[in-house]
TrEMBL record:
It comes from Ruminococcus bromii. Keywords: Glycosyltransferase, Metal-binding, Transferase. This is General stress protein A. GO terms for molecular function: glycosyltransferase activity; metal ion binding. The keyword Magnesium does not apply. It holds the Pfam family Glyco_transf_8. The gene is gspA.
């Protein structure tokens, strides 16, 4: 298996926990080659990565970060994200040419089971596999996608690199970024969906491979009310994903607020994160304090204090209608 991560030095301890979980639960793999896109990782943390991976008899390679602003010719707007989130779109340039397939994992993930079945997924006529992001169709409208198209999350990707090269999708990604002046909703996720979903080249896989925090913060019925997805997973798939996820994706969510590397986090699977942290070279690193802005903390407090039905109605309006509408209007002004 070829596994790709992208990390800065500040995120190295979190990436280290993810890699530890990957190594521990995939001893059945004949080979694991980890490619770490190096966004200024310190020598000390690189040594920690190398020692940890070496104990499992696996390989890790650090690859210099590309200059995406130079490649695109525009200043890419990343908002609250790191520029490294865009790197997954340019893996054909970044990775060795002899790699035909890879799994891309966000650093804020924990792998709980073998990924053999996922790795061997038949993509058929598609060139990437990902989990549905459970969003309103209005997010597709901004990307000029038809309502019945896919819209997936970029946190876990199975990529057919050979086809990406043959189809020169990196040029399409760059053209999309330039056309939007680098300002795209959900950054790289918007780009991948705007280009590949439009061509019907994305295979949607089981949610258990990218179980995001929002799935744990809301039960199925409330999730449907909050996100208002016109096309969505079944309740059976939802239950399977939250009961026994293969890959937990510790995304941020307004309701729970913090994440497992923060003090006093209450994610249902925080124990998994702490378990693999205790097995990693970063086991003695203290949990991070909650350094969110006051407005974010207030949002979490207010949402948890409000009557549930009122909170869900308000958040639903913002997430499914107002936010995508505002983004769409901004896009028209840019055009």
């Amino acid at each position: 298996m070829n596994i790709v991560y992208s990390s800065s030095d500040s995120y190295a301890p979190i990436a280290g926990v993810s890699i530890m979980s990957l190594l521990h639960n995939n001893t059945d793999a004949d080979e694991i080659n980890i490619y770490m896109i190096d966004n200024n990782i310190s020598d000390e943390n690189k040594k920690r990565f190398e020692n940890m991976v070496d104990k499992f008899g696996r390989n890790i390679v650090f690859i210099p970060r590309p200059d995406l602003n130079k490649m695109s010719g525009v200043d890419i707007e990343v908002g609250r994200w790191n520029i490294s989130t865009f790197f997954r779109l340019f893996l054909c340039t970044i990775l060795p040419d002899n790699l035909d397939r890879c799994i891309y994992l966000d650093c804020d993930t924990v792998v709980r089971h073998s990924l053999r079945e996922f790795w061997e997924t038949d993509l058929e006529d598609k060139i990437v596999a990902a989990v549905d992001d459970c969003r309103s169709d209005r997010y597709k409208t901004e990307l000029n996608l038809p309502c019945d198209s896919t819209y997936t999350n970029n946190g876990v990707l199975l990529i057919d690199l050979k086809s990406w090269r043959e189809m020169n999708v990196e040029k399409d990604f760059l053209d999309f970024i330039i056309a939007h002046n680098g300002n795209i909703t959900y950054v790289d996720q918007g780009v991948l969906n705007g280009v590949l979903a439009k061509k019907n080249l994305v295979k949607v896989i089981h949610t258990k491979y990218d179980a995001m925090t929002v799935f744990f913060d809301f039960n199925f019925k409330d999730l449907m009310k909050v996100r208002r997805p016109e096309h969505h997973l079944s309740e059976e798939e939802y239950i399977e994903a939250v009961t026994d996820p293969y890959i937990i994706h510790y995304t941020s969510c307004f309701l729970s607020g913090t994440r497992p590397w923060n003090e006093n986090n209450n994610h249902p699977f925080v124990g998994d994160y702490l378990k693999y942290k205790s097995m990693s070279p970063w086991k003695d690193f203290p949990q991070y304090p909650d350094v969110r802005k006051k407005s974010k903390k207030m949002m979490t407090s207010v949402c948890n204090a409000m009557p549930k039905r009122m909170m869900i109605a308000g958040i639903s309006l913002v997430h499914s209608k107002l936010y995508p509408m505002v983004r769409s209007l901004k896009g028209k002004r840019r055009g």
